[in-house]
From TrEMBL:
It comes from the Bacteria. Belongs to the zinc-containing alcohol dehydrogenase family. Its cofactor is Zn(2+). Residues 7-344 form the Enoyl reductase (ER) domain. Keywords: Metal-binding, Oxidoreductase, Zinc. This is Alcohol dehydrogenase. Signal peptide: none annotated. GO terms for molecular function: oxidoreductase activity; zinc ion binding. CDD domains: iditol_2_DH_like. It comes from Actinoplanes awajinensis subsp. mycoplanecinus.
Length: 346
């Protein structure tokens, strides 16, 4: 079969690999859709300490079961499924407390296990053990289902930041994750959602699709002043940084309303992990700064439901559909910000 495999930083190949077979406790799928994201770009350029090459990339996975290994119950050939990306152990102190996103033993599809940029893929028993193989609801396409994984991550962040009725929400970063955050915040009853982005071109493309109440180009105006203006000086109730930018995190703290919640959704580059925070703003205004790390199996199921019910539409966010042989080109499209979501259809 054909796969897209990481060999070394800067060396990702479209090549042949032996077709895998489902062992005991495993399920084999025909991959129908595997979406790309900024993480794939990062891996292709810099590698990752959890990836021992060669490794098939791809972690936003949807497909169809073609074989079921010994001892697997409840699944049959032909079932349409979505696969979690981050796999918690299900047994540690955090997992047993229901906090699966912060499992210290977490492993991942496309990192520790062969990923979805392939014609066929084996769903490891570790995924099945934590109920991480999800039935795709009727009416949801494979491409839409592949976006459930990033949507699940956004859902985790908005749960932690308690985005809800009447909130003024700012999303910083207008990539696919930023677009999902805008839509999700609306579905949770946010009063207004403002989108902030440095690149005018990326901002316009995203704003055309997700229609924020204001689209603020941070290269043209001061986003803090703009948000204060839009909120009569109050600031925003929730600010979500969907960008790998320390400056965005600093701005987020400064544009928060009293008792505002700030979600650091996007991580920072490893060599620049520190920011400047006016701690007195946090103290006197009772601000809450909240991290967000991936999603749990339950978040993935809820994300599929949000898509199925139409609460969070994602079909129009998939701006590019490419065959497997063009996956490496897709990383370039993602990196240059020419697309919202690029999905690969092997
Ligand atoms: Zn991703
Ligand atoms: Zn665990």
């Amino acid at each position: 079969m054909k796969v897209v495999r990481f060999h070394a930083p800067g060396d990702v190949r479209f090549e042949d690999a032996p077709e895998p077979e489902a062992g005991a406790g495993e399920v084999k799928i025909r991959v129908r859709s595997c979406s790309t994201c900024g993480t794939d770009v990062k891996i292709s350029k810099f590698g990752h300490h959890h990836i021992h090459p060669p490794r098939v990339m791809g972690h936003e996975i949807a497909g169809e079961i073609v074989a079921v290994g010994d001892g697997v119950e409840g699944w049959t050939a032909g079932d349409r499924v979505q696969v979690i990306a981050a796999i918690p152990c299900g047994e540690c102190a955090e997992c047993t407390r229901g906090r699966m996103t912060i499992c210290p033993n977490q492993v991942s599809m496309g990192y520790h296990f062969e990923g979805g940029f392939a014609q066929f893929m084996v769903v490891p028993k570790e995924v099945l053990k934590v109920d991480g193989l999800n039935r795709i609801p009727d009416g949801v396409s494979f491409a839409e289902a592949s976006v459930a994984e990033p949507l699940a991550c956004a859902l985790n962040a908005q749960n932690l930041a308690r985005v809800g009725e009447g909130d003024d929400v700012v999303v910083i970063g207008s990539g696919p994750i930023g677009c999902l955050h805008v839509r999700l915040a609306r579905s949770r009853g946010a009063a207004r959602v403002f989108l902030v982005e440095l690149s005018r071109q990326r901002l316009d493309m995203a704003a055309n699709l997700v229609k924020p109440d204001a689209a603020i180009c941070a290269a043209e105006v001061d986003p803090i002043e703009e948000v204060l203006k839009l909120t009569d000086g109050r600031g925003a109730d929730v600010i979500i940084t969907a960008a790998a930018s320390g400056k965005a995190q600093e701005q987020a703290i400064q544009m928060a309303a009293r008792q505002g919640r700030i979600s650091f959704f996007g991580g920072l580059p490893k060599d620049q992990p520190t920011i400047t925070c006016d701690s007195n703003l946090v103290h006197y205004r009772e601000l809450m700064i909240i991290g967000a790390n991936g999603s749990s199996p339950a978040h993935n199921k809820q994300a599929l439901e949000l898509v199925a019910t139409g609460a969070v539409p994602v079909a129009d966010l998939i701006t590019h559909r490419l065959p497997l042989e063009q996956a490496i080109e897709a990383f370039g499209i993602v990196e240059r910000g020419e697309a919202i979501k690029v999905t690969i259809e092997p």
